[in-house]
Amino acid sequence: MHDTFINDHLERLEQQDPGSRDHAQRVAIYGMALGQKLGLSSEDLQQLRWGLLLHDVGKLGVPDGIIRFPGKLTAKEWAAVMQHPAYGDQMLAEVEGAGLLRTAVRHHHERYDGDGYPAGLSRNEIPLFARIAAICDSWDVMLTDRAYKPAMTVAEAVAELRRCSGTQFDPSLVDLFLSVSHRMADIPSYVEHYIS
């Protein structure tokens, strides 16, 4: 996996949906902090970072008008959005060195209780990278202003993670994430430190 490939795809995502690149970078930072706390090897951390940077790459296969639409989607439009993890996995299928990172891309919308997509996996059937991605992706979405909702406070986001622990998210990873998330409360300086 080359940085050029990642940067090119992040740029395409940014053109499709402004803010996507910054979102991906923050999700990767959160995931790296959690991966380090889990004691992942340097090779696994690199795969995790790539997977988190590219977790939404499959949105390039969803029509722009659906991705950018600020209101409620129809059932048909939502079904198209739900295909983005599979599209992303397909895009990476021929990429040399994709390895583990594809599990974060394909399964980051699975739920711990089995009610997620695209495969309806549950608990430890969900690959570790995807369980990490689910928490980090949701955390960033909650803390970021969106066209359809304002950002939550950190306290509100913590409460939401706790509320969804054991249903949407792996409870052991939620606890671990919350033990390191205080380091990321001031996200602009944290991002600058780890990306620059």
Automatic annotation (TrEMBL):
CDD domains in UniProt: HDc
Pfam families: HD_5 (PF13487)
InterPro entries, A to Z: Cyclic_di-GMP/3'3'-cGAMP_PDE, HD/PDEase_dom, HD_GYP_dom
PROSITE patterns found in the cross-reference section: HD_GYP
Gene3D superfamilies linked to this entry: Hypothetical protein af1432
Regions that span the bilayer: none
Record domain HD-GYP: where: 1-193
Protein name: HD-GYP domain-containing protein
Classification lineage: Bacteria, Bacillati, Chloroflexota, Chloroflexia, Chloroflexales
